Amino acid sequence: MPLLDLMTKQAIEVCIYESCLALNSEDWEKFLSFCDKDKFNYRITNYSPEIKKEQCWMERNWQGLKGILDILPKHNTNHSPLTRHITVYQINPTNTTNVYDVVSIFSLYRTELDGLNSHLYSGQTKLFAVGKYIDQIRVDSESFKAEFIDRNVVLETRQIDVGSHIPF
Length: 168
Prior knowledge:
The protein has helices at about 5-25, 30-35, 60-70, 120, and strands spanning about 40-50, 55-60, 80-95, 100-110, 125-140, 145-155. By secondary structure, it is α+β, with helices and mostly antiparallel strands. The protein has one domain (about 5-155): Nuclear Transport Factor 2, Chain: A (Roll), CATH 3.10.450. The protein is globular, with a radius of gyration of 17 Å.
């Protein structure tokens, strides 16, 4: 396997980390700016031991995901902020030039806002979900701009609170 050059590795890591900062701040337009408009595909999957099968909770292309994000403010949702902690574990070149398979592990934390039983839970931070991002990222070899062409959010957590519409 060829060695990954430092500029490519850095471009991929910046793409992943900056996109997570955009998600944390609910800057959906910025997050989408890291994604290829024509090729991007986004999935949320998990494995269910009860039925011994992989489940697909959602699958959208760039335009479909943008449509969901555009109407997100109209949803009745839990507005407690989410914070992603992510670590990039693997970056491997694919058979396609300048395209890389990337595996990152994430923990997603939620800090409770005032609400039901606010005297008990307001300000409390809890682990919300864990999983991994399996991404395909293309890097322009001249500008070293990286963008997602595929993201599979593979959740380990299988019970998510009602009203949790924020993308992982």
